[in-house]
Amino acid sequence: MAEDIKFRHTMPVQIRFSDVDQFGHMNNSVYFSLYDLAKTTYIKDVLGDADWSKLAIVVANINANFFMPVFFSDHLVIETAVVHLGHKSFTLLQRAVTTDTHEVKCECRTVMVGYDLATKEPRLISEDYKEAICKYEEKTLEELSKERK
């Protein structure tokens, strides 16, 4: 799925002792915390000091595929890319990858929706934000607006 995607955003993560379960591998619920942290970092790096009092972004859908376990001794990065950019939403693809073997341990797809805090309704993603995402991903709006499977 992600073979043709260039992940420009990577965030190294440290696996904590409490992340590991009785079987010696990272608990599946921990991945979502790591993906959330990487999401936040991506958005800050790409959109800078966005005015979140005017436009919030909320998670509308999140799905993960777990391919193989992560162990305490693994060195891990979270890779993030926008793979679809619509009018009111965008889709992030994230992967947990080992730095030494480059194995993809888990992959996560998240649909994020622009949200108006005052009206409590979905809202268009601003053209400035779309432009910033396209520039960062080095893709045109036309390329990012195509549906990816």
UniProtKB/TrEMBL annotation:
Gene3D superfamilies: Hotdog Thioesterase (3.10.129.10). One of its GO terms (molecular function) is fatty acyl-CoA hydrolase activity. This is Acyl-CoA thioesterase. Pfam families: 4HBT_2. It comes from Phocaeicola sartorii. Keywords: Hydrolase. Belongs to the 4-hydroxybenzoyl-CoA thioesterase family.
